[in-house]
Amino acid sequence: MDKLQLVFFFISGFLVSRVLIKAKIPEHLVGLLLSQKNVGFPRIVFYLIASSALLSVIIPNAITVLTLLPVIGLLQKPLEKALGKDQKIPTILSLTLIYGANIGGMGSITATPANGILIGFLKLNNVAGVDQITFTHWLMWGIPLVLVFILVAWGILTFSFSLYKTRSIKIVIDTPFPTGDRHRQRIAMIITSIYFSSSLILSTLISQSLGHGSEGLSPWTIGLIAFAGLITLGIFITLFFIPFSSPNDRTDGPRAVLLTLKDCYSGLPMKGIYLLIVVGLLGGAIVVLDKLGLFSMQDFLVNNIQTLLSNAIPALLLLLIIALFTTFTTELLSNTVVQISLFAILLPLAGGLNISTVQGLVVVTLSCTCAFMSPLATGVNGLAFGGIKGVSLRGMMITGLMLNTVGAVIISTWIYLFVG
């Protein structure tokens, strides 16, 4: 996939995510699943994890958290009323968002910035096999991986918080969910479908044109990339400049655009933003210490990971070691810092190991996204932890430890089998 095409995908994906939020589509979908229905708490938890994960496949996972936080706020009081506050409802609800959004980030190439960093690094260093890491191919192995992770995360949450003991209690969610303007929701879904289908088709065509072995970009490839740019421009114009009216309005009634500049930054949970700022400052401090020669993150990681890696170790076990090392290091440091540092280490090492460079780097990318113990590990963790009051850090760490370990096994096995 060409880097310029990827930029178009990310810009379009961000704009699509904002119009979905403004149209209140997530609240509407969760309301359809839960409102006025007698369902058990384990099923509600499954719905929330699945909704968060599948939404994160389409839009950036941090945006998914921001989108669903108001929904969680609507659910918290009726759940505590039915089950009691001793059931650790805030912690469970927060973890459904964290688990679902991080898991969904593995599903598509545009779902999280970490995936974009991976593609940029592969292209910059001309790593063998980069042309096969496309929007389409990623979906082919990413979506099934997300579905497996949803079931595993739900099972671990159910076991860790003994949710199975509450399955006989039927809960009626009578809180009214905002439904939004159905006409604008349909328009938003049409735009989302155009974005997703065009990304799928264009990435497939560009991948095929790049695989013919010709030097440079052919006119056909350049034309496809230009078409991707036109689609992005079309989405931008449609959202910001074309006014729409509800079918219930009179022909001379008020008309409004689907998205404004304010819609792109409004509704952020400030506590979660502060946690993100802390993560950014920690990452900056590490860079400054490296520049001053006081502490080198890359040297620290090299000294620890090189002792674990050897060409005598089977490929699957190597990938598992990389996954575990990445996940638990990310709990202490920013996932972006860990990802870039390990990329620089694995690039020269992978040639002497029983794995391909692409496999090693993809495992690092997925593992630094799937760090579930600490609110500082990923942006998703910080936003969900800071956006919901009363979350237990101890409960988050214990349950996250289990999912980190099982997740590393799943990621390493999956990449070993399906990403060559």
Structure explained in plain terms:
This protein has two domains: 260 residues, no CATH class; 155 residues, no CATH class. The chain is 69% helix and 1% strand. The protein is built from 16 helices and two strands. It has a two-stranded antiparallel ribbon with strand order 1-2. It is globular, with a radius of gyration of 22 Å. About 1% of the residues have low confidence.
Task: Give a brief outline of the structure.
The protein is mostly helical and 420 residues long. 69% of the residues lie in helices and 1% in strands.
List keywords for this structure.
globular, 2 domains, 16 helices, mainly alpha, 420 residues, 69% helix
One letter per element, helices H and strands E, the order comes to HHHHHHHHHEEHHHHHHH
Strand order of the largest sheet: 1-2
Helix content: 55-70%
Report, as a whole number of angstroms, the end-to-end distance: 17 Å
Low-confidence stretches: 210-215
Oligomer classification: single chain
Give the tally of structural domains. 2
Secondary-structure class: mainly alpha
Helical region count?
A: 16
Mass-distribution shape: globular
Average pLDDT: 79
Query: For the CA atoms, what is the radius of gyration?
Result: 22 Å
Largest sheet: 2 strands, antiparallel
